[in-house]
């Protein structure tokens, strides 16, 4: 059960699928929306925001308690600068051509959560695979299927895992409107291991992102991962 204090959140990328899912979760939990950031030049859509019309902006609000960034990796680099300027904790949920190390300097002053995949279940799998890789001599193969509009291929989730596995055996497909599936296969002379994580409802990412963002507001400046949150959960 989540105990929700009076925390004002800013959702960056509020028109996107994840932005809308987070807005719905926040509304269900009665979390205060301080700011809904959309891309400058994009059209305002009344149907998406209903009673939040006065919260929609092209810029991050300095009065927010935490930022959840699900925009684009290009925008994230500017969003973190704004978070740094306003001294606001930020969860980075975007994937693409950036890594957590790009934000190490800002993390000296504000809490930053690097979360290319906010699902707690997936991050527990990540921890398990990392530990197995440390103690055994498995050869790994990674695979994924995502909805056809997802731009990065492979996804940030697989790229993040592959920083510890360093395998060239990665396959990636884009199909359908709602797919999100990751697979890990490990083989050695004596054992075969297999992990699979399939998301049936995008709200799982939003639910867990809200939990992680609320946790982040209580942390000291630093660069965090979802596994840091799990260790205290």
General description of the model:
The protein has 233 residues and is of the alpha/beta class. It has two domains: 8-118 and 203-232, NAD(P)-binding Rossmann-like Domain (Rossmann fold), CATH 3.40.50; 120-198, Dihydrodipicolinate Reductase, domain 2, CATH 3.30.360. 33% of the residues lie in helices and 24% in strands. The protein has helices at 17-28, 46-49, 73-86, 120-135, 156-165, 203-216, 226-232; strands at 8-12, 32-37, 56-57, 66-69, 90-92, 111-114, 139-146, 170-174, 180-187, 192-198, 222-225. The strands form two sheets. A seven-stranded parallel beta sheet has the order 3-2-1-4-5-6-11, with helices on both faces. Strands 8-7-9-10 form a four-stranded mixed beta sheet, covered by helices on one side. Strand 1, helix 1 and strand 2 (32-37) form a beta-alpha-beta unit. It is globular and about 60 Å long. The termini are close together.
For this entry, give a set of tags.
233 residues; Rossmann fold; Dihydrodipicolinate Reductase, domain 2; seven-stranded parallel β-sheet
H/I helix tally = 7
Instruction: Kindly report the oligomeric state of this protein.
Output: single chain
- Overall geometric form: globular
Mean pLDDT: 93
Q: How far is the first residue's CA from the last residue's CA?
A: 11 Å
Brief characterization of the structure:
The chain is of the alpha/beta class. It is 33% helix and 24% strand. It has 2 domains: 8-118 and 203-232, NAD(P)-binding Rossmann-like Domain (Rossmann fold, 3-Layer(aba) Sandwich), CATH 3.40.50.720; 120-198, Dihydrodipicolinate Reductase, domain 2 (2-Layer Sandwich).
């Amino acid at each position: 059960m989540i105990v929700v204090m009076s925390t004002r959140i800013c959702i960056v990328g509020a028109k996107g699928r994840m932005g809308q899912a987070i807005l719905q979760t926040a509304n269900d939990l009665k979390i205060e929306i301080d700011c809904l950031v959309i891309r400058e030049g994009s059209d305002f859509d009344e149907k998406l925001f209903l009673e939040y019309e006065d919260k929609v902006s092209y810029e991050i609000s300095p009065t927010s308690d935490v930022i959840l960034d699900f925009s684009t990796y290009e925008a994230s680099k500017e969003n973190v600068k704004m978070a740094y300027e306003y001294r606001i904790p930020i969860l980075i949920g975007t994937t693409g051509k950036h890594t957590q190390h790009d934000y190490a300097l800002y993390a000296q002053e504000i809490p930053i959560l690097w979360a290319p995949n906010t699902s707690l279940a997936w991050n527990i799998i990540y921890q398990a695979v990392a530990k197995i890789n440390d103690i055994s001599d498995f050869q790994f193969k990674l695979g994924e299927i995502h909805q056809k509009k997802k731009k990065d291929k492979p996804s940030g989730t697989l790229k993040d895992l592959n920083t510890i596995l360093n395998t060239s055996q990665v396959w990636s497909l884009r199909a359908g409107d709602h797919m999100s599936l990751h697979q890990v296969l490990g083989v050695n002379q004596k054992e075969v291991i297999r992990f699979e994580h399939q998301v049936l409802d995008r709200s799982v990412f939003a639910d867990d992102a809200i939990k992680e963002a609320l946790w982040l507001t209580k942390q000291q400046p630093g660069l965090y991962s979802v596994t840091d949150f799990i260790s205290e959960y």
